[in-house]
Every structure is written in C-alpha cells, then in structure tokens.
Amino acid sequence: MIIQIAADCEEAQLDRIKSEVQAIGYEGTDIETQFGKYIIAIGKKQFDIRRIGSMEGIKDIHRVSDAYKLVSAKWKVGETKVKIGEDLFIGDGHFQMMAGPCSIESEEQIESTVKHLVNNGIKIMRGGVYKPRSSPYSFRGLGIEGLKLWYQTCREHGIKIVTEVMQVSQIEPMHDYIDIFQVGARNSQNFNLLDELGKVDKPILLKRGISGTMNELLQAAEYIFSNGNERIMLCERGIRTYEGAYRNTMDLNAIAMLKEKTHLPVVADPSHGIGVRRFVPQIALASVMAGADALIVEVHESPEKAFSDGQQTLSYREAEALYENVRKTIKLRGELV
Ligand code: PEP
Ligand code: MN
After folding, report:
1. What is the DSSP string of 181-220?
2. Per-residue model confidence (pLDDT) at position 337
C-alpha cells in the first residue's frame, strides 16, 4: 500500500497516520523524494482502506499488490516525464535520441561526435569514461579527466551527457560534469550504488541486468525511488539467452510490457541489444514501435577503430539514416498505436 502524504501534513497528523498503520498490523517505511512524501505500508491483513484514507494529512492512498510499489503503474496517474537539465524531457510523449561512442577516447573524438550530434539535432551524448570490461587488459576508460574534457565541449554546444557510474565513490566527482548517471547492466543489482543514486539530484538511466528479469529491474528502480530520487529511466539492453548467434537477445516484449507495469520512461539500447552493427537500425526501429521513450545508440567516426564495441557501433552515415527513420517511425507510431 502506498500512502501519499499531503504537502501540508503536520507532524502530529503524520504520527497519527503511522500509529494507525501499525495498529492495522502493517509495517510502514517513510519515503521522502524531491517531489513528495509517502509511507509504504507492507502487510497482508484485510482492513477497510477508508480507515487510513479518511485521515487528515493524506493526499491519496493506493493498494499496490506488486513487489515494487512506487515505480508501479498501479498508483500513479499517467506516465512520468523525466526532466534532463533545464530544458529537456524524456517520457510521457517526449522522445529523445542519445548517441555517442561506447568509450570516450580523445579530444578529437569528442569534437567530431559533438559536431555529428549538433548537425543531426541530437541533444544527449552517450559515452563511457569508466568502462566495465570482461577482460582487465582491455581499455577501461579515460576516467574523470576524460569526463571533464568531454563536459567542456558538450557545454559549449548545448549537448547533455549520459555516462556510466560504476561505484559509489565516483558519484561525487562525476556529479557536476554529467546530466544523467547511467547504471550499467553489471551493476543493475548493486544495491549500495542504487541507494546512493537515490540521494542525488540528477536523473538515472538504469539498465536491465544481463540475466535480469523485469521484476528485478523494477525492484532495482524501487531502491532509487525509495531513497528519494524519482527521476529514473529504465533501459532494455538485451538479455543473455541460449542463442549464441548474437551478443544479446533484445527483449522487445519487455519494452511493451514495462510500459504497462511502470509509469517510468523506457529507453531502448539496440546496440548492446543485438551487438551486431548491421542489425542495429532494424532493432532500433522495432524498439520504437514497441513503445520506447528514448533510444541510446553507439556511433563512431570510424567504428572499426573504436576502443570498445566497434562491432555494434554505427558510422555517422549509418546513424544519420537511422535518425531519419526514427523520426518517421515516431510519426507512424503516433498514427498506429
Ligand atoms: C555501455 O553502455 O557501453 C555498456 C557497457 O552497457 P551495458 O551496461 O548495457 O553492457
Ligand atoms: Mn558499449
């Protein structure tokens, strides 16, 4: 059960609500986010919901049977629109494309990518400065100095930054240089990291775990929300299945179904989703038709020279054709779905 607390609820009223929750045999947890106050009450006893719903200091009360509560679509009216920086939105009809290399490699690469994005009306650049790599001998990113370089060029051109944070100690040094913290697939259930990202004032792009279920993804998002940060986007990036012909299996089903399960925006990452460059555009368009609120794609001036994930990275020419087709597909989706 989610109890939404009214903005003008007084301390004494809140105490009375909590006592009543206890009296009916429920366990209450206080939540305070940047947008509101809630009590999550967990229990199984039957009771008349009006017993709490009619109390002073309550804005609304909802029964939510899912294991995840605040991220569930069962209580919130409409879809969540996540604000990125001061002037950009994702979700509730606001679609964005995010593009850039797998890894930030050099100043020249940053400048070339930013130019490509500006020319194509893309407002968010992706890239990794801390890279989770299967081998410790692979390139692991330029770190905070690379991020500072990147930030400067992006700010000059009005481009926002989404990049992966791998551990709690990186949050603070990265904070002022990013617009969206990305949680990678390998950290999707790093609950300490999720707790801390719940305390920051920046949006979070939370990826689905490599073998993660939708429920696990939603419960991971619940960690962030319940720690105070409602600005969350979920990202389908492919899952590991028995099929070995491609890197991952892009779960298009999950995009459609997540849109029903949660009010949060759903982002699609077709680059990691299939992991094979020539199929990325098709899977990207299919993701849009499945209901994605945003796309994140890997692009590079010379994909074959990329420090990481070149095999799934689009050239600028390929990416430009995709952006065009995505815009057409969004229009078509509006007409069909
Ligand atoms: C990435 O975005 O480059 C990345 C490492 O993604 P994932 O965490 O989905 O593997
Ligand atoms: Mn990558």
Report:
1. EEEPGGGTT-HHHHHHHTTSSS-EEEEPPTT--HHHHHHH
2. 84
